[in-house]
Design a protein that fits this description.
The chain has two domains: 32 residues; 151 residues, Glutaredoxin (3-Layer(aba) Sandwich). It is 39% helix and 19% strand. The strands form two sheets. A six-stranded mixed β-sheet has the order 1-8-7-4-5-6, covered by helices on one side. Strands 2-3 form a two-stranded antiparallel ribbon. Strand 5, helix 4 and strand 6 form a beta-alpha-beta unit.
Length: 199
């Protein structure tokens, strides 16, 4: 084998190893190699709360919900808003759906509203999911340009699906649940505490 061919072969092998090493820190790549087919990054249910004085700027977002109606941050001004990132094929999303709906009902007219952000499905799939699980709050369809995910990435990135964020009355991120809700009471407390701020 000539020196040039040997060098090319070694370079190709090194590049392959570098690419494999680079993928090793990518959870989705790991899932692909494992053959799990989950297609989502499961968080551990950890909760992050941000003291009022340390919260960033209000999150300015806009999108379109399942039925084509536009929605924006201005529609929720002055209220606590719970934002849940999800999609229909995500098992933890399905598991937590009843708790989210129950809390949406509980806080309806009591200072907090709920908004989903669907990161993968088409409107028909999202509507079918809502009908199947009795979900009555709307979801922004964020499949095309990911504008909702981008809007929240500057404060606390929703880097797992599902992720649930609690926004205060000023539209700032007050808390995050990373992954499936471990208990309905946890989110209930986060929402209640955020509603009570400044009263």
């Amino acid at each position: 084998m000539s020196g040039r061919i040997r060098f090319s072969a070694l370079a190709a092998a090194a590049l392959s190893l570098a690419l494999l090493a680079g993928c090793s820190s990518d959870p989705l790549a790991e899932q692909y190699r494992e053959g799990s087919g989950k297609g989502y990054i499961a968080g551990d249910g950890s909760v992050t709360e941000i003291p009022e004085a340390q919260r960033g700027e209000p999150v300015d977002f806009a999108g379109t919900i399942e039925d084509g109606t536009p929605v924006s941050a201005a529609d929720y001004a002055g209220q606590v808003l719970v934002v849940n990132f999800w999609y229909a094929g995500c098992a933890p999303c399905r598991a937590e759906a009843p708790d989210l709906q129950a809390l949406s009902d509980q806080f309806d007219g009591a200072g907090a509203r709920f908004l989903g952000v669907n990161v993968r499905d088409q409107p028909a799939n999202a509507i079918a999911f809502n009908e199947n699980y009795g979900i009555t709050y709307p979801s922004v369809m964020d499949v095309g340009d990911g504008s909702m995910q981008l809007a929240f990435s500057g404060t606390i990135p929703p880097n797992a699906v599902p992720t649930t964020l609690v926004l205060d009355k000023s539209g700032r991120v007050a808390a995050r649940v990373l992954g499936q809700l471990q208990s309905r009471s946890i989110l209930e407390t986060l929402v209640s505490d955020t509603i009570a701020e400044g009263t």
